[in-house]
Amino acid sequence: MIEITIYIDLIFLENLIMNSIILYATAVILKVKPKTIRILISSTIGSIYAIMTYITEIGIYSSTISKIILSIVMIYIAFNPQNIKKMWKQLLIFYLTSFIFGGVALYLIYFIKPQEILMKDGMFAGEYVLKVILLGAIVSYIVIKISFKIIKTKISAKDVYCKIRVKVNNKIIETRAMFDTGNLLKEPITNTPVVVLENSLLYDVFPKEILNNTQNILAGDLSGISEEILQEYKSKLRCIPFTSLGKQNGMLVGIKADEIEVEIDDEIKKTKNVIIAIYEHSLTKRGEYRAIIGMDIYQGERLKSNM
Fold first, then answer.
1. Does 88 share its domain with 164?
2. 122 burial class (0-12, 13-18, 19+ CB within 10 angstroms)?
C-alpha cells in the first residue's frame, strides 16, 4: 500500500485556485464583471471547507445539505445577486461549470497516475493535483466555450425579443423589440448607437410632416415641411446608412432621443444618447416586434428593474 503525505497548505492552495477558476468561468458565462476580492473571499471559504473535510470526521461537513449551503454562500459572496431568481441562475451555472471541470479533472487524474491520488468526500489530493487543476482548467474552458457557442446558435424566441422604452421629447415610447446580433447601426459622425422604430410609434412624439416625408428628406427635398418645424428639427435630423439583404446602400432618417431602457430578465439596461432610425413600414407581418436594437444597446448600463 502506497502512503501519501497530505499537506494542509497544499490542499488549501489547490482548492483556492480551483474555486477561483470555476467562479471566474461562471462569471464569463453569465457575462458579469466580478470583483477579484469577492472571488478570492468566496474561494477562500470553499478552501477552508475542503480542509475541514480532511481534518475532521464530523459528518455534517460531508453532507449534501452542507455542500449546497456552501455553494449558495460562495455565490452570494462572489456575485451578490439582487434577487432569488438571479441567485438560482448563477447557482445553476456554477454547478454546471463545476461538473464540467470535475469531469475533465477526474479523467486527467486517472489518465496520469491514479495510484498516487487520494480521494476523500469527492475531493482529491496528491502529487499531480495542482498540475491537473491547471490542465483541467484549460480543457474545461475550451469545452464550455464550444458548448455555449452551440447553444447560442439555437437561441430561443424569449432571448431574441425584449421590452424597450425610448425616452424622447419628455415622452416615452414603449414597445417590443428584436435583438439583432448583426445590427451594427451607428450614427456615422458621432458613433451614437441606433434603434430602428416603426414610424407609426412616433406620431405622438414627432410632427407628421417629418414622419411622412422621410424619403423626400433623404433626397434633400424639404418642401413638404413647414418653416417652423424645419427650424426646430433641422439640426436634429440625421442620415443613417445601412446595409441589408437585397439593399446594399440604404438610408434612414434619424432623430436624436434622450435614452433607451431595455428590459432583460429582471434588469433594466440603459443607454443614453440614442438615435431613432425611422422605418416607414412594418418590420414584421404579424407584429412580433416593432423595433430593432443592436449589441451596444442590448449591453447598456445595468440598472435594477422597475418596469
1. no
2. exposed
3-state secondary structure of 143: helix
Domain end, chosen from 96, 119, 152, is at: 152
Whether residues 289 and 230 fall in one domain: yes
Dihedral sign for Cα atoms in the order 215, 218, 222, 226:
positive
pLDDT tens track for 189-236: 788 888 899 988 988 888 888 888 888 888 888 887 888 888 888 788
pTM value is 0.49
The candidate with the shortest Cα–Cα distance to 107, out of 78, 89, 127, 128, is 128
Upper half-sphere CA count for residue 164 (Cβ side, 13 Å): 30
What would the pLDDT profile of 154-174 be if each residue is shown by its tens digit?
545 455 788 899 998 888 999
Pair 17, 40: CB distance under 8 Å: no
